Amino acid sequence: MANIALTGKTDVGLKRSNNEDSLIISPELKFSLVADGMGGAAAGELASRIFADSAMDIFSAASERTQAETPALIQKAFRLANKKILEHVKNEPSHSGMGCTAELIAFSDEGFALGHVGDSRTYRIRNGLLKQLTHDHSLVQNLVDQGMITAEDARHHPHRNVILRAVGIEENLALDVIKGKTLPGDIFMLCSDGLTDMVEDALIKEVISSTLSIEQKAEGFVELAKLAGGNDNITVVLCQVL
Q1: pLDDT at position 2, please?
Q2: Which of 3, 7, 20, 29 is the most exposed place for a label (fewest CB within 10 A)?
Q3: CATH code for position 236
Q4: Stretch 98-107: mean pLDDT, rounded?
Q5: In degrees, to the nearest 5, what angle opens at C-alpha 205 toward C-alphas 200 and 209?
Q6: Which residues constitute the domain of residue 34?
Q7: Would you state the pLDDT for residue 128?
Q8: Total domains in the fold of the chain
Q9: Residue 175: how many CB atoms within 10 A of its CB?
């Protein structure tokens, strides 16, 4: 397996009373995730935790895996979480509408595979170039894609929090799976929109390219989001290829 350094941090932010985000950093199993719950305090928190627990169950049972096997495991984790959330809502109708956005990345000797649903994001910095690997499943992203608004307009749009895909909302979950090679020095960043709504890409690039340790970078991202207002829960996971 590739040698990966992992770190992560989550914070309630400055405006919320509870944290509906979940994260896992598992150096042993070479995978990490960020999930951002929705559907109200108790339900959102539960949805993101169901996703995290489901992924841990799947990857714990497949600690030895090849790059070719990894995408199927990611799909299995998302499907299991989707099924469990739907079953929970069936038994607890008061939690109707609960779900989560999610990023799940897993590494092998050959590279990485990434599962993505919603408007949480994954970025990669390689040779000084920052690239957003995921595409937001949101109303404002659709408007940007159609040329109706600019990316800057999207940051302040009144409907910027309208999500078009999430785990636990529909029986047939549409999942993006992204695969690629890793190079020594690559840093992958998974984060909830509590970070990207507050911190622009130029500043993300500046921090992630700095000589700080990845632990210091994760701390720095949370502090920057809070300095900008901390309107939502903030969660960031950093994975560095050594």
Answers
A1: 72
A2: 3
A3: 3.60.40.10
A4: 98
A5: 155
A6: 4-241
A7: 94
A8: 1
A9: 18
